[in-house]
Amino acid sequence: MNVKSKMLAGVLLSVAVVMPLVSACGSSSASDGAASASGAKVSSPAIQNNGTLTVCAAFSTGNPPTYYTDSTNNPVGAEVEMAKWIANDLGLQIKFQDVAFASIIPALQAGKCDTIMSSLYIKPEREKVVDMIPYLMSGSKVAVKKGNPKKVTGMDDSLCGLKVSAAVGKTATLQAEKQAKQCKADGKADLTVVQTDQTTAAVQQLVNGQVDAYVGETPVVLYYQSKQQGAFEPVGDEFGVIKVGAAVTKGNTELGDALKQSFEKMNKTGDYKKILDKWDMPSLAYDFK
Q1: Where does the record locate the signal sequence feature (predicted)?
Q2: Is residue 205 over pLDDT 90?
Q3: Cis peptide bond upstream of 65, omega within 30
Q4: Which CATH class is domain 139-241?
Q5: Segment 33-47 mean pLDDT
């Protein structure tokens, strides 16, 4: 079955879009806690440029509260703060690269950054091409207008005959497309998946009544629910619970081990919990054993 998908804003997925964030690409300020290169714990070839940890994230798509840009184009969010903490711990300055989510692993492989911290789910197919260090948990939810007028019960056949919005390339989007095929196979009304290039746009379509539901990562749903109370609500069980990891190029054990140790240190100092609490994400904490 052909899933009906309306692509907004002319997004072109086949091209790797890599853009430096103007406010974040230079050397980090002292307030970011970046140390001098002389005290760095990792160096080339484990990182592209001595003294700097370059992090890829899909800021143009945005995934609040984990990563997005504020009104002045500064990177913010829980994962941004974790990346800055790690750079400081490793004695490095921080630099962010804005990369289209669908092209983010190729960008890493092409040397556009040293690591990916962009709510990247740890999946077997990804672990075949990159090494991943877990640091968060996540999952996906369905959100509907307040009061649930369409009586949606979650990611199931209650969505058949409806229109849902989702961001391009996300796991929840793929699940929605799978459910659309199931609706067709069961002889039920079509589920239309409307894809956008920005998470904010997908959520706004639900708020504006352009779609019946939104599907996306659990932290995104909870974040927007807190910001627009009374506009919409999550329904059904969380699905696709999975680990989130920082990706490094395959075989880059020096950087991978350094990131793992730094995450564990962040957890032991209590700063990991502080960051999650600040962004209302305590339920998504990874269990560092």
Answers
A1: 1-30
A2: yes
A3: yes
A4: alpha beta
A5: 75
